[in-house]
Fold:
Amino acid sequence: MKTRLPLAYQILVFQAAIILLSALIGAAAAVWQASQELDRQSEQRSLAIAESVASNASIQQALLAGDPGAAIQQTAETIRRSTSASYVVVTDARGIRYSHPNAALIGKPVDEDPGPVLAGQTWVGVQRGTLGVSARGKAPIFDQGQVIGMVSVGFLEPPLAERLLGELPGFATSLLPSLAIGVIASWVLAWRLKRQTFGLEPYEIAGLLEEREASLQGIHEGAIATDSDGTITLANDEARRLLMLPDNCVGRKVAQVLPQGRLLKFLSGGLKDEDEVLLAGERVLVASRRAILVRGREIGHVATLRDTTELTGLARGLGVDSLTDALRAQAHEFANRLHTIAGLMQMGRVEDAMELIAQTSGLHQELTESLLERVGDPVLGALLLAKAAIASERGIELRVSDDTVMTRSSAGRAQGARSIGSEDLITLLGNLIDNALDAAAASSERWVSVSVNEQDGELVINVHDSGAGIPAGVDGQIFQEGFSTKAGPNRKRRGFGLALVRQVARRNGGDVSVTNDGGAHFTVRVPLQVGAAR
Structure:
């Protein structure tokens, strides 16, 4: 396995390299700037010496006389030594040297073009000559307004490396403290980063991030995290799908991406229970919310969401639960009758036992045949039979009106003409009858009336009970998710039946209403045709 350099060492190396590089660049810039300044000073000094030599009367006379006795060379060398110049060169009007530190070059023309100076102009600059690169100053020699020659004075420049070496002691004096401060700062920074990242190296953090993303997107549950201000910090794909969140939800407030309701209240911490059953659109979610603690401090919350619609097939489950309750009720009822028949047989009252058997068989057969003949739809008939058995067990009379008729051809096929399916019909009628049975059980008359028929292109469902009716002031709240007037240990699991009824009715283009008429009277109207529902 390849050895990785720890973060602290990486920061230290990079910091030291940055300091060294910055110091070198700064030193080079400083040396270059100082060199430019020295060149300007040397140029001006050279020009001043050149102008002084050019105005020297002995130089002028000797130049006019053709330099008898090499007087110009002697005078130039004297001036060169006294001014510490690198050279003092005097030429005639043709550029022929009359003086030079190298006597072998006297009598030879200069290497540079003397034209501008011999035209009567001074010149300063840096040039390379026979002695090397030098900062020069050149001045013309006048006699009665005529240029008779020129003077060139220069100071040789030391190489850049030599200049850098000369600055090295001062450079080291400023670099070493800076480097020491940088090393200490790097170590402190590395220690702080190490503490903030829980001792993890960058590649370990990257690996954890990849694993976290893979885990969050791989789990079937939705996961959504918020900080202490209610801002979404994380939402996996399943949470976005279940809550229908926009792609840019991360970084926004929960209230900005969710409508008002129990779901928003739950995610905002308005509900005290940690586990809740919530409605999100047409989905029923089981949600759990937990606090996120870091070093004993709460920094936010994470909520997990499970779609019970997919988990148990909610609409189908309602029908299965009804049939299960019906089977249990029938088993309980038949067990009581069998015990009675067994007692009659033991007492020798055979005729009474046979009469009870015939009465029981005929009663259930008559109820079954009556419902199937009048209703016509097997789904509706089976549901009403199941509810009748449950009502019988609870001592409640289930009255199915004579106008309850729904043809089989209109019974909730996937490709049929009806806009409502069998599962939606079970949800609508099953929840309404269950609520009516609960209300009737608390009354003295104890009856529930059910009517299902087709009127003017609509499926009309009426469920009427003998209960106390809808309490005053809450008729507009009974269809809200989580609202319930029933008491009991499972109160937080209640308040979804009527919300589902309204949701299913509206999804199919209809609606549900309620009135008080000697008890609660619920009416559901849903268009029969798909086109009407849309």
